[in-house]
Amino acid sequence: MIKITFPDNSVREYEATTTAGQIAASISPSLRKKCVAAKLDGETYELNRPIQADAHLELITNDNEAAMPVLNHSTAHLMAQAIKRLYPDAKFGVGPAIEEGFYYDFDTEEKVTDEDLTKIEKMMSNIASEALEITRKEITREEAKALFVNDAYKLELIEAIEEGEMITVYEQGEFADLCAGGHVTNTKEIKFFKLLTVAGAYWRGDSNNKMLTRIYGYAAFSQKDVAAYLEILQERKERDHKKLGKELEIFTLNPLSGLGFPILLPNGATIRKQIARYVTELEEDYGFQHVFTPVIGSVDLYKTSGHWELYKEDNFPPIELDHEALFLRPMSCPHHMLVYGSKMRSYRDLPIRLAEEVIQHRYEASGALTGLERVRAMTLTDAHLFVRPDQIKQEFAHCLKMIHQAVEDFGIEIAYYSLSLRDPEDKEKYHDDDAMWIKAETMLAEVLDENGIDYVPMTGEAAFYGPKLDIQIKTALGHDLTLSTIQLDFLLPQRFELSYIDENGEKVTPVVIHRGFISTYERLLAYLIELYKGAFPMWLAPTQVTIIPVNNNYHSEYVAEIVARLKKHRIRFNLDDREEKLGYKIRESQTKKVPMLIVIGDKEVESKTINVRRYGQDDQQTLALEEFVTTILDEIANKSR
């Protein structure tokens, strides 16, 4: 007999080799119908897999989030089986469940395109209706090699499995796949799915390897849920910053500019200027001093900081000129160390908060480049705070408060906070000073606790010189991005031999806090385009008002008065006095998503009023000219959304 402990800590005894499905049926037939899989001591277990020993058991029902990866992983296998029937020469890479759905990589002589997805779906439905049992088998390395003798990709995966490690395959009908699980127990349980797109993916993510075909798909437990997901995808498509960026003339991509070097057009440059102005003024309000440092530095500078050895492979190669090796900067912290070290400091001078609008360069892989979201030259407002040890907590909280204010003003939603810690076992990636790391990590955790912030510890994600807090956001397209970073650093000031004179007249090394404020301007702009679907709030909109006179001859004098008033207050406007039909000009303004549209006709001229139409609203509003201007200025000042 075996003892099974349930989540409520109740314990029941069963015969050895009882399955989780049998246990569910013994509790309730309706429960068994809802069950998809189980967790046995935290490991995903198929319902038809025998339980051999005492264990903690959690049954996963189809209304549990944990059921989705099981269903989607099983659907990936179903798709692979369908592909094998349709393309007998197919060889398979990997086919995991992902955060949203699944994919499978495969190789065939015949090219597979989006037009082929329908026939693959049809074959999947046929296989599902065959009600094939999905079973798990443990096999030896030799048996695995024999089973996949004609599939070079599977053989390579088998070779990567350590000697002595268990190898498992899952079988359904004539199809077998190298896999660790978990799965549903029968293909008939896979009823609702949609194949989404065909893409390419290098084998094992290495551009030196062959490009495989990758098909993405999504599965759910009802057609309603699949349809809802497809609606989400359509909404994301409409919000895609690359699509909107082109339509709204915000940025352009041209291979002559170089891959990963987007060009901001006048509309994009205007939005960027508003972001930069906001950031600069907020930093001044929070006591930061601004500096300007070169976009290039000597290789020796980055060797001193320690960045050279760690990051030289991810950046542009050095430039050799006049017996000097120069490097396009990938970060600004080494330069800011030089700013601090330019003169002697007293403990009374600290904290010193240095900030800069910085252009940085990273040689991102060409396949990873994405519009404005991932580029090779980026601008950000970077800052470094030089503090005494007794100031660390207050300055960390100071940075956090500033970031939260910006998050509120831009309308950004934080997904979660990540506390990046070192891996104590990794002596190569991280500076080897246990006492420093323990002190820094403890201090950061205390600051977060004192500020009531829940965070996810991420071991092995720290910078080489210290732990950091990352503030994560989700884009409208579902991408997980880092918005802000606050890092604690005891190492760099030592490397640059920085010091201040303490109250006892002795030299002491300061502590550095690295603060990345609101991502790069490029990535923030991409996020905001998608967040607002291109309809920016008044304070960020490249054009804030469109003015359309009904008749240029009769209404021009009053229009000139309006234009003068808007210019006086630096309100951004477009005067559309083209000889086009009124309806056409109104529709064009709506297409460009301008926040306010005003039409000036006889009535407005006589009453000295403004007829206002807001983007996305059918109602019109009549305001006096002064009231109209005041309304816009109030929305700008209050960052109204």
Characterization of the model:
- It is built from 20 helices and 33 strands.
- It is α+β, with helices and mostly antiparallel strands.
- The chain has an eight-stranded mixed beta sheet.
- Helix 8 packs across helix 16 (521-532).
- The mean pLDDT is 91.
Which structural traits does this protein have?
single chain; alpha+beta; 8-stranded mixed sheet; 5-stranded mixed sheet; 33 strands; 35% helix; 27% strand
Distance between the termini: 64 Å
Write down the overall mean pLDDT.
Answer: 91
In which order are the strands of the major sheet placed? 16-20-21-28-25-24-22-23
Radius of gyration: 30 Å
Number of strand elements: 33
Helix content: 25-40%
- Detail the poorly predicted runs: none
Blueprint of the fold:
Layout: E1 2-5, E2 11-14, H1 20-27, H2 29-34, E3 35-40, E4 43-45, E5 55-61, H3 67-86, E6 91-92, E7 97-98, E8 101-107, H4 117-129, E9 135-139, H5 141-147, H6 152-160, E10 167-172, E11 175-178, E12 192-202, E13 211-220, H7 223-239, H8 241-247, E14 251-252, E15 263-264, H9 266-285, E16 289-290, E17 296-298, H10 299-305, H11 307-311, E18 319-321, E19 324-328, H12 333-340, E20 352-361, E21 377-387, H13 392-410, E22 414-421, H14 434-450, E23 456-459, E24 468-474, E25 480-489, H15 492-495, E26 500-501, E27 507-508, E28 511-520, H16 521-532, E29 545-549, H17 552-568, E30 573-575, H18 582-591, E31 596-600, H19 602-607, E32 609-614, E33 620-624, H20 625-637
Parallel strand pairs: 1-5, 16-20, 22-23, 29-30, 29-31
Antiparallel strand pairs: 1-2, 3-4, 3-5, 6-8, 7-8, 8-13, 9-10, 10-11, 12-13, 14-15, 17-19, 18-19, 20-21, 21-28, 22-24, 24-25, 25-28, 26-27, 31-32, 32-33
